[in-house]
Design a protein that fits this description.
The chain has one domain: Alpha-Beta Barrel (TIM Barrel), CATH 3.20.20.210. It contains eleven helices and ten strands. It is globular and about 55 Å long. A six-stranded parallel sheet has the order 5-6-7-8-9-10.
Amino acid sequence: MAKNEAPPFRADHVGSLLRPPALKEARRRHAEASLDAAGLEGVEDREIERVVAKQESLGLCAVTDGELRRSWWHLDFLWGLSGVEEHHADFGTGFVGATPRTAGVRIAGKIRFEGHPMLAHYRFLHERARAVPKLTIPAPSALLGRPVLPPIDAYADRDELYADLGAAYRAAVSAFAAAGCRYLQLDEVFIAMLCDEQYRAKMVARGDDPDALLHRYAALINTAVAGAPPDMTVTLHLCRGNFRSTHMGEGGYDAVADVLFNEIGVHGYFLEYDDARSGGFEPLRLLPKEKRAALGLVTTKRGALESKDDLKRRIGAAAKFADLDRLCLAPQCGFASTEEGNALTEDEQWAKLALVADVARDVWG
């Protein structure tokens, strides 16, 4: 693989991987109280070591733990913040063709970062990875972007809520940096949802200004990463929903591109581009020269393998709007944003990642 001085790498991936059968069985036994917490952790450790070795064998320059210890891409992190509680209700998440479990969050007190289980999770990955260990956490909007944000007793003033949330995230980023993390990815759904005209209309109906929300989410990201060390690379993954191979939204990046690329202080982007829902490559013309974009041309929602020639053709089409040197290749999303996973097999998952690595070698050397 041609060398990049920093991520995102020419061949990269969003992060989550299908939960292996052994882990699913261990989780079932743990839920039934026939396997204790130490036994479950042992299975997690073993399966993470296996998927890390597999990623490295494919030639990927960055590896993740596959989010194998998590049930959700976002909730497991949010539940670890002080002042945030697990809450079950019908949140009306709006996936097309599927209904997730009724799990979510409730703000029950002042939001603070006071340590987190994922610090130990990251250290486990960091100690075992030969490639660059990558950490993924939800962007701050994951706490705010639901169709209805209920009244919050702990915060009479929303600006105070935003300030505390930003400060908690900044403390989290600093803590992960102290644990050795130098490649951090924030997973951002609700900026991507602001590309969807129907979603924007819902925000207006609830009394919000979609453009004001866009700037609010951008400011929270900037607060979160303000304390990152100079040698930490931070990227932003844009996602329109990924549950059991379904989605929530659609629409090109035009409505958010200027803020996304020029107002948010990250180093690179993972952009969905696996089907027509994500629009054209034209917004890439706003990508600054010092930033990179990983094109999510390989879908994680289906097992059928993309054509190498088609991928190279689409990379060439994107290069009409941003220099080829500032582009990379990746799947459009994770393979299992929740523990249920998408509708493909582990073999198909690894074939997709191998394809990304092969095409990147062909294109970039």
